[in-house]
Amino acid sequence: MDRISASPRTPTTRQQDEPVRTLQPVMRALLAVFCVLTAMATIALFVLSSATDEFFAWTIQPPLTAALMGAGYAAGFLLVALSLRDPVWAHSRLPVLTILAFTVITLIATLVHLDRFHLQPEFASLPWIARTAAWFWLIVYVLIPVAMAVSVALQERAPGRDPRPGHPVPVVLRTALAVESAVLLVSGVALVTAPSTAPTLWPWPLTPLTARVVAAWLIAFGVATALAALAGDLARLRTSAIAYTVFGVLTLVAVARYPDTLDWDGVPAWVFLVVAVAIVATGAAGWRIAPVPERAR
Questions:
Q1: Tens-digit pLDDT profile for residues 145-172
Q2: Are 258 and 63 contacting, i.e. CB atoms less than 8 angstroms apart?
Q3: pTM score > 0.70 for this model?
């Protein structure tokens, strides 16, 4: 009888005694590299948005597009910086998957539109920084997606357990995230598969290249919000919620810097503004109510 009653409890006890799975050295190193790269991209795109012909891998017009991309990189910087501060892999899984989705789509856009980059002979008269940035971009986006996919696979096979979820996302926030996810994913998929639809979907002009890179950010955040809505735990979403809030805030700052770029007579401009405000609201709500994540022990 004692043996029979003790048997069912044994797996549970072992699972509880198993240490929490933490970030492996390879993943930490990769996140540190990505932290540096996103900081550089934030400066080149958000701060120097009107000088991409001198400091970036390709010339981006209008500057609002560069600033929007810079807002994405600033959010990406926060994702990786905060993930590095938290050793628990379960708390970094969503940020890493978000980054992986972005880098894969951006690599595809880069290879499809390689003729627009400053590494082509026709751009030889541009400053060396711009031409170096183009080669640097190409190398980074060829290597990073592969390295990240391998690191995720190794990380998932590492010994340990995930902390038990104990803070479900409230229904109201879950619903709002699901709606935002649908908008982001539909817009992103449309832009990445058919950038010619940009004039009807987007409130300012986009080239095929910028349409696809902007779409990469939309899809990445759309995937993140979908995962948060479907199976989210607030403790695991805290890092993503902070970055999501910053992305929305900096998007609004970019619009305030270049208000004349948007076509305010069209519906897309107002939809864009409403979505940006909703991103700030839901991100801040998730950040506010999320508990401080359990640390590895």
A1: 999 899 999 888 888 887 776 677 778 8
A2: yes
A3: yes
